[in-house]
Write a structure and sequence with these properties.
Helix content: 10-25%
Largest sheet: 5 strands, mixed
Strand content: 35-45%
Shape: elongated
Structural class: mainly beta
Low-confidence stretches: none
Mean pLDDT: 89
Number of domains: 2
Strand order of the largest sheet: 1-3-4-7-2
Number of strands: 15
């Protein structure tokens, strides 16, 4: 059954639910290279070959797809379109399955959760999404999901603000190395292999922990201090860092450099470690001659 589209005051259809996106690597163990420095992905509408509908419904889906926010590369999302109560205790949810990868994907059996605006769980079900067919690269496919009374935990269904989300299993993958594109392109293969081996041989961070490990510190001839750190994400979610206040101590436990660094959408994926070099210009270096036979660098806690 195709959805009934609620209308805005201007007569256009409206989205009733919200967006819920996950990493394609976490969900499918699939990634693809972004186009150049692509930061946003807009998805084209794609219908299942066996779906038939009126021109009016096609227009409604097209309009709502254009209303969806842009995705980031390597994401799979569910974007809530409509919710209908078929009969007491059951409902049909229509949502876009959205694929921001540069390649076709096929989903399989997965667990979905139905959430309200405050992320309270209203329902849960396991569904085989292979029936949705192949989802083309950078596309949105509308699909219907039916929850019965055993899969719903409430009879009080929200009209708006809800969302359908993938329930990811706790990661069983080994903690692994993640390299920024600039590092992938500039680092020699032997150096990549050494980093990968080191990360895999280290004890991983505790679940949910994010920490910093020093790799290399070097003072240049102009006095600037270059510090390379391994940012280690032990959680099952990707994290994005925007501001990092760092302090460096030398072998005598004396502060030799301190400063804040602004990062542009710096993402460390779930259960990975990502190296990055922070450059302290001479004005942030507090000693002229630094003993770096041993050292440590760490983020300053906000007061």
């Amino acid at each position: 059954m195709l959805p009934f589209f609620r209308k805005k005051k201007n007569g256009n259809p409206k989205m009733e639910g919200n967006e819920s996106a996950v990493s394609s690597e976490e969900l499918l163990n699939e990634t693809s290279e972004a186009d150049n420095t692509e930061e946003e992905v807009h998805t084209d509408l794609s219908f299942h070959p066996e779906w038939t509908m009126s021109k009016e419904d096609q227009y409604s889906f097209q309009f709502l797809n254009m209303e969806c926010p842009a995705l980031r590369p390597n994401q799979i999302s569910l974007s809530g379109i409509s919710l209908q109560e078929n009969e007491p205790g059951t409902c049909q949810i229509t949502a876009f399955i959205r694929n921001s990868l540069n390649k076709t994907i096929t989903l399989h059996e997965t667990t979905l959760v139905f959430l309200d605006a405050k992320d309270n769980v209203l329902g849960r079900k396991t569904v085989d999404l292979s029936s949705a067919g192949e989802i083309p690269a950078k596309s949105s496919r509308p699909w219907n999901f039916t929850f019965n009374d055993e899969e719903l935990f409430t009879s009080d269904l929200p009209e708006e603000g809800w969302k359908l989300a993938f329930q990811l299993k706790p990661s069983s993958r080994k903690h692994s190395l993640q390299l920024d594109n600039s590092w992938e392109q500039s680092l020699a293969e032997k150096d990549k292999s050494k980093l990968k081996e080191m990360v895999e041989n280290l004890d991983p961070p505790k679940p949910g922990e994010v920490n910093f490990m020093g790799l290399k510190a070097l003072q240049k001839d102009d006095g600037a201090l270059h510090v390379t750190l391994l940012i280690r994400n032990g959680s099952n979610k990707n994290i994005t860092l925007e501001q990092i206040p760092l302090q460096v101590e030398d072998s005598h436990s004396q502060v030799v450099a301190k400063g804040g660094f602004s990062l542009d959408q710096f993402e460390v994926k779930a259960n990975t470690s990502k190296p990055w070099t922070f450059i302290f210009p001479t004005e942030l270096v507090q000693k002229e001659h630094i003993d770096l036979s041993s050292w440590k660098a760490y983020p300053l806690q906000k007061k």
